[in-house]
Amino acid sequence: MPRLLVLLALFISLGSPAQNSPSPPTRPATEATQFDFFLGDWRLELTPKAKGLAAMIHGVPKLQGRWTVRKAWDGLGLMDEMRVFDAAGNPVALSQTLRLFDARTQRWQSHSLDVLRARLSSSSGRWQQGEMQLEGQGLSAEGKPRLTRSRFYEIGPKGFRWRQDVSDDNGATWEEGSLSIVATRAGTAN
After folding, report:
1. Can you tell which superkingdom this protein's organism belongs to (predicted)?
2. Of 8, 67, 110, 124, which has the fewest beta carbons less than 10 angstroms from its beta carbon?
């Protein structure tokens, strides 16, 4: 028993590791509310950019989906899931994203998993000029490196728009408007 008391006294005198290092944030930074417009359930109309002769003749596919967004980690971040279907109801995309505001860098960090293709992508961004703007990197559908520029804009209580540009040559050229989304609120925010 005396040995236990000596060890306990030594531990207390040295301090615990948590006492010797800065504590992580326990409350969200003010900027962590920048994505609050995104909370809730959204109905999506997706428009991929027409590519190739077939798309120019027959038009772009009609895609619809649902995006569900919830607060996570005691309000320090968000978790969201997007499901996209073609006109016949077949799944086209399923992704899950973790979003966290990094107070140190003053940027949002996002990490997405494309569940159907087993691919990860990352992006980083910030609120600028009334929009959430993100730059990212991941892989194309063919598995090649891809850069992205995405933005949430025309944000209001009942909806928003989202647009993504892509570059498959490390930013030398960009395909603007590769994918556009019109989101309409389907449910309340949590």
Report:
1. Bacteria
2. 8
